Structure of Dihydroxyacetone kinase subunit L:
Amino acid sequence: MATKAEVLDFIRIYADKMAEHRQELTDYDQAIGDGDHGINMSRGFKAVMEKLPTVEEKNIDDILKAVGMTLVSTVGGASGPLYGTAFMKAGAAVKGKEELSNEDILLALDEAVGGIQFRGKAVEGEKTILDSMIPAINAIKASLADGQTMAEALVAGETAAWNGVEYTKTIIATKGRASYLGERSIGHQDPGATSMAYAFQAINEVAQK
Ligand code: ADP
Ligand code: MG
Ligand code: MG
């Protein structure tokens, strides 16, 4: 279960994290891309924070859609349309909701993955955002199926997300700019998988409050 206040809290905490880890994410992208991932994400979420006061009285779906549209319109590069679509799809999945059930949360996460895959045509194992996101969602589902609470499941989700980030060090990038490096991308962690792991960290922090 998540209230609108918790959804807003998640967005604010994630925006803080993108500012805080701007250099770190950029450094990862420097190694295998064009060195702008932290710049892109922090710029996008700075714009989101400016937009948020104008939509925070609306339903959760409108808030998530506004986040997505802001990201698409302010972030150049792969991550803007990918994260933007994820937030827009998550919003569309919870239309009219002022509060989210566990089922709503899972649906929103699944739709977000679907949006990223529709846009980017990637599957797991290509060294992308999906390599932390899909394992995190699978872990959350497995924990809930095991009878754990959502708060417990989100702890497992974050752990799986960081394990996914570690896994990206071992594989070759076959999508995005890092794919130009081929085998030389091995040994480096994927910036997008890392920024997505911070999203699950932010969700988890909200749930543990
Ligand atoms: P750009 O590569 O255009 O400079 P960013 O640096 O902001 O954009 O984002 C790079 C990240 O985007 C990569 O680390 C990767 O995780 C993610 N990414 C790139 N292409 C795809 C894709 N097709 N599907 C999913 N994620 C992708
Ligand atoms: Mg880049
Ligand atoms: Mg770029």
Remarks:
- The two ends are 13 Å apart (CA to CA).
- The beta strands are 2-3, 99-100.
